[in-house]
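Dear Dr. V.,

Thank you for agreeing to look over these. As mentioned in my earlier message, I'm a first-year student in the group and I'm still getting used to reading structure tokens, so any feedback on how I've presented them would be very welcome. I ran two proteins. I've put each sequence directly above its structure. The first is here:
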Amino acid sequence: MIRAEGGSLEEQIALKKAKLAELRARGIDPFPARVRRGQTCAQALALGAALSDQRGTETVACAGRLVELRDMGKSIFGRLADQSGRCQVYFKKDALPESDFSLIKRDAHVGDFLSVEGVMFKTRTGETTIAACSAVLLAKSLRPLPEKWHGLKDVETRYRHRHLDLIANPEVRECFLKRSTIVSTFRRVLDERGFVEVETPVLLPQAGGASARPFHTRHNALGADMVLRIATELYLKRLIIGGFDKVYEIGRIFRNEGIDTRHNPEFTMLECYQAFADYNDMAALFEALIGECAQALKIDSVEFAGKAIKLSPPFRREFLPELWEKYVGSPIQEILLGKGFNRQRLLELAAKLGISGANKAPSAKVFERIFDARILEHLEGLTFVFDHPTAITPLAKLKAGSNGGLVERFECFVAGQELSNAYSELNDPDDQRERLLEQARQRREEGDEETDILDEDFVEAMEAGMPPTGGMGVGVDRIVMLLTGKASIRDVILFPTLKPEEGRTS
């Protein structure tokens, strides 16, 4: 039978708190400081599986959370869980000290942490089990596990109480273990290629390196307004200028934007830069990153957004001018004017295509809406889209033969979602200043608050001389979504940003 632990949530908590007080009154420490742990649950199971006889002789010492308890009188079956998995434990009255058996029978509840020593054996049903010879309470749980109050299925509750989600849903823990594998694989691939991992500032005097709205804060000691970084790009390029050949950073980025299945205001980005390289080299590097991650996870394809996605390189390559003419119906040069947009032509095209609200939107947003409406759906599988308008890419090198209207940039898409963004980096300081001034004009005249800001310190650094460079940003969370088949970014961020609950401060 399953041991009863009360009715309502409040009654169960009261029962556990009463038991805690009783333990302390009996001189038992319910939260001891140390424990001897010799094996994980998985290691113990492996030892048991290798037994030639029904019962082993080697003593194992496991520790974990008690997730199941079945009291059968003079014998009790329990199940311990740790990060490695779950293992059954058999507590027999005449095989344990009286105090230890009493602990399991009278004092232990599902949710408590226990340390158990014993030998491995196989039950009559063939299940590998620890025959306990001692048991120690390590930590008393004061709240029931989620299963005890009808599971943990509500999405909002799962995100808000991730610790309970991890206990109740083993597949969630597995997803985040895969995330760790993906990030460590990124590091391995880059380290093996001679990249140096670095750290750059999070608090900045002004935002730069991306088109996004920053979070603002205040540094009291300096008496200065500051922002949280929206990209690591400009500092990493300074390191290329300073003599590093290859650098990368995996870090948190903050953008003051909406929340949906693909966006969280705080997310993880990999940015890497390589001197004497271009965007073609970055495309090859991105293919290596995805290919190596797929091998590490032992997969060669994945189901994502209802489609089977092949993960092995090479990925599909498309060029935006060709896609634009094919699916939008006119040459992309018609909407370009030097290094900016021909806004009149852009609005005429938007009206022709039925794009609503274009007159009040910045040119960059109108372009994005046309791309999303007419081109995005045609990008099958993992697809690179090369060569983008200069007007929306102020930090990339001009594309030869484009009359200044296009730059050497690619984005990689899958199932309508951007995964990476890469440039042949602009290294002409005069052109860089001119481009950023154009961004300022778009901000001033079109009300585009997400344009890049002129960073004179960065341009001054460029004037010291910057080699030809390839650079790339990769959305780590979105890569995890792809490789684990998750539909929402909140499923791959341990603690996603949520609206505060009413009446609570944290």
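The second protein is here, in the same arrangement:
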Amino acid sequence: MKKYLIAGNWKMNKVTAEAAAFAEELKAKNFSNADEVALLVPFTQLTAVGEGLKGSGIGFGAQNVHFEKSGAFTGEISVPMLEEIGVDYCIVGHSERREYFGETDETVNKKLKALILAGITPILCVGESLEVREGKGEQTFVASQLFADFEGIGMADASKVVVAYEPIWAIGTGKTATPDQAEEMCAFIRGVIGGMYDNSVADDMLILYGGSMKASNAADLLAKKDINGGLIGGASLKVDDFSAIVDAAAQLK
């Protein structure tokens, strides 16, 4: 049976009271596939969301982390701090972190290793810009990200990583990635992972699509062979919108 993960990335939205109310409302949905659902929320909301979701089977996690356990890194959050809260997931290398905050494949690699060591599931984001896509270099670019991000990570640990494909060229550009384009790249990513490790690791890996998945297109995207779910942005901010995507995945099982 195909595995899914519907992960909501709130980005920099909601205050704690709003987050707690959202978690309570989402928990009340009693999803039959709750173990395939997660919320990735701002640091200040992690405790409230974790408490609100307790006993629901829905996972939760952070949107970023530092690779060092402690030190003079003002404004950063460490893996032990996330461990203390009990998070299940953490996003690594999101396109916005790479573009606005100088995230590199080197730091992504260090973060992956630190999270794996702590038993927190990383959600690794990869994807190409419009310039790269128009130059027909998308596969070379994404492959280079995967090679660098997984550098020094063994087969057993690689299987613990979730990969999310973000078509940066289709975010805020007026262009849209079709289900076939999304599937093509997710299948390519699976093939690269298979070449780096073996087919068993590639076949078992959850590969998400992170390009504006919403209720209206979720079923078509999730039905594709190599798409195991979505890293959901705007549609994760309203319970009904997010729930519709969760339900779409459940109906495909």
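From my reading of the second output: The first helix runs from residue 16 to 27. The CA atoms of residues 6 and 37 lie 5 Å apart. Does that match how you would interpret it?

Kind regards,
E.
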